[in-house]
Amino acid sequence: MSIKRLPAKQESLKEFLAFISGCAEEKGLSADTAGRMELVLEEALVNIFNYAFPLGEGWVEVYCVDDDAGLSIEIRDNGIPFDPLSLPDPDLASDASARRIGGLGVYLMRKMTERILYHRDGETNILTLHFFNR
Prior knowledge:
Helix 1 runs antiparallel to helix 2 and helix 2 packs antiparallel against helix 3. With 134 residues, this protein is an alpha+beta fold. It has three helices and five strands; from the N terminus they run βααββαββ. Strands 1-2-3-5-4 form a five-stranded antiparallel β-sheet, with helices on one face.
């Protein structure tokens, strides 16, 4: 298991993505799987940076956990409680101008991972994303 802990700021995104890329390369994941991982992680991290700390600064930890089928990525932060899985899927059948803003990023995260889990442990949000090698 590898861990990277950085401030919950936009400036940390590049370093987190390089860390994830290194984990994918070390595991020998396909370019497709590595690309999905980076896109999902970028969406999740940007949401944390933008919304989890309305009253100040915080931290984010990203864990790469090797498993038999691929790689699990765990994102932990000490921001306000938020379960992204509680959001309903967007209404993709309606006209784009009539849809409510937001929710597409979480929808894409669900579709691009094999499994996604959320729980809160004390003061910590924990989002676990499972990626199987394709």
